[in-house]
Amino acid sequence: MPRFFNTTGPCNPEKHYTLSPSKRLVGSQLSRYIESELFWVLHAPRQSGKTTFLQSWMREINSSDKAIACYVSVERCQDFPDADDAIPAICSAIISYASAWLPKNIIPSLPQCDPASQLDTILTEWARLVAPKPLVVLFDEVDVLQDQSMVSFLRQLRGGFAKRGIATFPVSVALVGMRDLTGRPGEQCAKRTTSQDYLIMSKDGKQVNPGSPFNIKQDSATLSNFTSDDVRELALQHTTETGQIFSEKSLELVYDFTRGQPWLTNSLLQKCIWTLCPNGENVEEEHIYTAREMLIKERAVHLDSLAERLKDQRVKKVVQTILTGESDPTLTDGDGFRLTCDLGLVVKENGIPEIANPIYRETIVRVLSQGMQDAISPPEFKWQNDDGTLDMDELFKDFQRFWQRHSEAWEQKADYTEAFPHLLLMAFLQRVTNGGGRIEREYAAGRGRMDIAVLYNGVWTIIEIKLVHPGDGRSAAVEEGLEQIGKYRDRLSPDADSYLVVFDRTPAGRQKNWDERLTWDVTETKGKKVTVVGG
Fold it and tell me: Which ranges constitute the DSSP H helices of 448-497?
């Protein structure tokens, strides 16, 4: 059976196009963990290659004959907050995975003892079985453990850490999950809000001291995304085996759209060869654009799980600030920002928080504006010129009428209220262009605006959204917006028609009347026309 681009589960080099996972490991030296008998943490977003890395490294260790390694997933313990249930389940997982990966004579048995010492006991027995070789255990999905389960798990590992060595305890243990083990003595969390948080609470909700189990880790490593060269190498494996060619421009787009996120990269490449070019045709730029649109519309599990996170209030605060481009000196403080980074949803680019890649950026906007788009009737006005291009003047005039008629009532029902103007305008644009054009969006915290480029029937239109809050001064916001839209237009399409949309965010009751707010001015920046639309 020929190899393929894998999007489900860990990659197997015999079945899937695969890159060396160890090259992507950031902040660690693998050999040192065994040689120096260290415990460590690996954390990275979901579907970024953690399991592939662990199983690959396990095979490498076992083939070297220097140690015995075993991958163990504890995902089955997700619904066991009590240690009395979770620890026996972890021990059963150890036996199950050892049976799958290792010879029968070095598979431990389930100890018949109290759960408070059962994990320590089985790991000690296991170390004796594999002696004189050292034992390495790679625990995956540890972030599903919670409350007393996590306390007992870490305490027993900590107890074994002090006696680690050949025939006494595993010499090295990796704790792997989506989030880092960041807890320190005295650092507690008040409430458990997601299954991915390492939070320690007692049954009655009181904070408990887990005996400082977190300080046994030596390093916190992570996995980097693919580089642009990695994307080319991955595609070249397919070309070498099948003869099907990816154009250089198509591979540049794959990297631009995904920023090397492994699941997204494999998904785009897979869609091209299985769906868009199934007969071996060359893969070109237009195929990547189509594959991206298909991926976003399908809302596969990977994207859907990220979309679900947008309901989390901590995620909402970060994403909304980035959407509106506002500056917030507290944005990167606290667990909310760390959570969005751990999810792989947000990154810092040149010190500025922004959405991690264009596909996530587009997915977020589509998800948050989909309800509005569904509630907007198909346009009845003449929104196309005779040559098939968009009549943007007519479109924005109709949007002003729509904004006056619906914005106040709709905003009361909106969840992302600060970003409501952006989302409603984008829903309106998407309703018109859907199926016949393309919308590109750029936004990041601290930029003070959102840039939108609409490509329809081969013609670009540049749109910039600015919010005017009380005390900002509309004229200053317009002046700043004109300068910003000039730079964006020069970079993307110097001859494109340009629109600056300015929303008045003065609180209800203090706003100007609609005749004063719904303005329409035509001005210039850098010698080229810009239409300033007030809302």
Answer: 474-492
> Which of these CATH numbers, 1.20.120, 3.20.20, 1.10.8, 1.10.10, describes 228-298?
1.10.8
Of 51, 69, 64, 87, give the one whose Cα is nearest residue 126. Answer: 69
Arithmetic mean of pLDDT, 428-445: 84
Per DSSP, the three-state class of 497 is strand
- Right CATH number for 21-223 from 3.30.70, 1.20.1300, 3.40.50, 3.90.1150? 3.40.50
CA atoms within 13 A on the CB side of 461: 20
| Torsion sign (Cα): 3, 6, 8, 14 | positive
CA distance 345 to 46: 11
**3-class DSSP string for 396-421:** HHHHHHHHHHHHHHHHHHCCCCCCHH
User: What are 44's strand-pairing partners?
Assistant: none
Task: Give the Cα separation of 524 and 483 in Å (integer).
Answer: 10
pTM of the model: 0.88
Domain ranges (residues) in the chain: 21-223, 228-298, 304-534
Task: Tell me the residue ranges of DSSP E strands in 282-414.
Answer: 346-349, 352-355
Q: What is the pLDDT of residues 76-96, one digit of tens each?
A: 888 888 999 999 999 999 999
pLDDT in tens, 330-346: 899 878 999 999 999 99
Long-range contacts of 477-483 (CB under 8 A, 24+ apart): 477/502, 478/502, 478/532, 480/448, 481/449, 481/532, 482/523, 482/525, 482/530, 482/532, 483/525
